[in-house]
From TrEMBL:
Region (Disordered): 167-190
This protein's name: Pyridoxamine 5'-phosphate oxidase N-terminal domain-containing protein
Domain of life: Bacteria
PANTHER family, alphabetized: FAD-BINDING, PUTATIVE (AFU_ORTHOLOGUE AFUA_6G07600)-RELATED
Domain annotation Pyridoxamine 5'-phosphate oxidase N-terminal: ranges: 189-286
Regions of compositional bias (Polar residues) in chain numbering: 173-190
SUPFAM superfamilies in UniProt: FMN-binding split barrel (SSF50475)
Length: 325
């Protein structure tokens, strides 16, 4: 499991949180506690981040009936689902291989003639109704109609910035929208409106060795700024002082975003590159922001009917700062 990598350490030191990060590191393990086994078994979805066959980083979600996430042993997670063909990570996860030479790099135990290389993935099990979340990173291999993930990192995160929602599955399949995917290289006007109204998204990153991570970002509607059809900006609020996401970006700017359509089941996937903005008047104009993150879009994929789940209107977190005017 090891300690923080050099990107995380660099960001912790620049932010002035090196001491707090040292204390927080004790919360990172590589096994799933018993209480978390029960939590995962109750979940109908899992956010996953990883690298595709072209080396692009994406975030997506897998869904299933409660019980599709199981822990056969403390360091192994079994996911009883694979993404549909329209998903940007479908080929990599269904093929149980690394998305690029970087993602399948050293330390996986594979090699020529030794079978498929594991896919490095980051995951979040999140329960909006209780504002609980659990973060896991590891190496995934195709296992029947699902994935077996050997875990490298396991940690729980605080409930800050999670909007409370309840879910229910779509019951009238005849009225459901056919699953379709639309690709582009910039945001359409409708997609820009979706992002301006968003209160939640998920971000996937990798370090310079290809180890992946997936993280949650939340705030009041308007916290994501659409600067242009190919550029987004959002505030980085106070968190757990580990800086796992920004630490990865320090070493590798590639990133992917998932914006769930909570009420429609549509998934908006973005891939591109991100950078941290540390100083200047722009940061000060965002209430609660300690830094900003700017994301340059390289590709967009919108998948209609990506999820069978529908969610209630949100109850916003009391921790959400007001948005910039």
């Amino acid at each position: 499991m090891g300690g923080y990598h050099r990107g995380e350490i660099a960001v912790q030191e620049r932010a002035g949180f090196a001491r707090q990060a040292g204390h927080a590191h004790g919360a990172i393990g590589n096994t799933v506690p018993d209480v978390a086994v029960a939590f995962l078994a109750d979940q109908p979805h899992l956010v996953v981040g990883g690298t595709d066959e072209r080396g692009r980083v994406w975030a997506t979600q897998l869904t299933g009936e409660p019980g599709f996430l199981t822990v056969p042993r403390p360091q192994t997670l079994h996911i009883g689902a694979l993404p549909p063909p329209e998903d940007p990570l479908a080929a990599v996860l269904a093929g149980a291989g690394g998305g690029s030479e970087l993602a399948a790099g050293a330390g996986t135990g594979g090699g020529a003639g030794s079978g498929p290389q594991p896919a490095r993935i980051g995951m979040i099990g999140i329960e909006p109704a209780t504002r609980r979340r659990m973060r896991m990173n590891g190496r995934a291999v195709r296992d029947g109609h699902g994935l077996r993930v050997e875990l490298d990192q396991v940690l729980s995160n605080c409930p800050k910035y999670i909007q409370k929602r309840d879910h229910h599955p779509v019951t009238d399949q005849g009225a459901s929208t056919p699953r379709t995917a639309v690709d582009s290289t910039e945001l359409s006007p409708a997609q820009q409106r979706t992002l301006r109204a968003a209160d939640t998204f998920f971000i996937a990153t990798t370090d310079d060795r290809g180890d992946a991570d997936a993280s949650h970002r939340g705030g009041n509607p308007g916290f994501v700024q659409v600067v242009s059809p190919r550029l987004l900006r959002w505030p980085d609020y106070a968190g757990n002082a580990m800086f796992l996401t920004l630490g990865n970006l320090e070493l590798n700017p590639a990133a992917g975003l998932l914006v769930p359509g909570w009420e429609t089941g549509t998934s908006l996937h973005l891939t591109g590159s991100a950078r941290t903005v540390w100083d200047g008047d722009e940061v000060a104009r965002h209430p609660g922001a300690q830094r900003l993150v700017e994301f340059e879009i390289a590709a967009v994929r919108e998948v209609a009917a990506a999820s069978p789940l529908r969610w209630s209107a949100p109850a916003f977190s009391r921790f959400n700062p007001p948005t910039a005017g």
